[in-house]
């Protein structure tokens, strides 16, 4: 009983002070952590089609189709299946995949949540941030500079 009264006192203290914990979404954008894991951003120019992201994905979210010369023909991402574990981002040797802060994507059917490489290239960032810099300091220890032009934004 004492615990209940303490929790109610804490609730009333915050309610009467005027501090708010919610935002009027979608009119006001919520504050999202820089390390939030949202929908993927894909750079076809940087990708070397090594298929490591496809192999490391725990639930077959990523599907890559290559030709005989190992040139990428298709890169498909099933966002509805993704658990946002960030393993694909970690294993990519050239930073071709990054998880954005974008959480605003919907679909009426599961087929609406399948993105190809062109659709992923056009995924907007939630905020105007440098995608690689936002993942520091944890990324700096194991990701190199990569080759190719950075074309995320």
Order of helices and strands: HEHEEHEEH
Q: Extract low-pLDDT stretches.
A: none
Instruction: State the separation between the terminal residues, measured CA to CA.
Output: 55 Å
Helical run tally: 4
Strand content: 5-15%
The CATH topology of the domain at 37-135 comes to Alpha-Beta Plaits
Rough shape? elongated
CATH arch. level architecture of the domain at 37-135: 2-Layer Sandwich
Explain this structure.
The protein has 153 residues and is an alpha+beta fold. The chain has a domain at 37-135: 2-Layer Sandwich (Alpha-Beta Plaits). 20% of the residues lie in helices and 13% in strands. It has four helices and five strands, in the order αβαββαββα. It has helices at residues 2-17, 52-56, 87-91, 117-121; strands at 40-42, 62-66, 72-78, 97-99, 114-115. It is elongated and about 70 Å long. The model has no long low-confidence stretch (mean pLDDT 79).
In short:
20% of the residues lie in helices and 13% in strands. It has a domain at 37-135: Alpha-Beta Plaits.
């Amino acid at each position: 009983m004492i615990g209940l009264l303490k929790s109610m006192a804490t609730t009333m203290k915050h309610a009467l002070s005027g501090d708010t914990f919610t935002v009027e979404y979608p009119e006001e954008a919520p504050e999202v952590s820089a390390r939030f894991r949202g929908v993927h951003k894909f750079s076809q120019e940087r990708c070397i089609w090594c298929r490591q992201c496809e192999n490391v994905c725990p639930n077959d979210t990523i599907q890559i189709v290559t030709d005989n010369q190992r040139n990428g023909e298709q890169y498909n991402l099933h966002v509805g299946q993704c658990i946002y574990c960030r393993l694909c981002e970690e294993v990519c040797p050239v930073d071709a995949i990054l998880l954005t802060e974008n959480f605003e994507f919907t679909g009426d059917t599961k087929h609406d949540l399948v993105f190809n490489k062109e659709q992923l290239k056009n995924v907007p960032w939630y905020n105007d941030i440098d995608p690689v810099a936002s993942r520091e300091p944890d990324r700096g220890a194991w990701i190199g500079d990569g080759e190719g032009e950075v074309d995320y934004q």
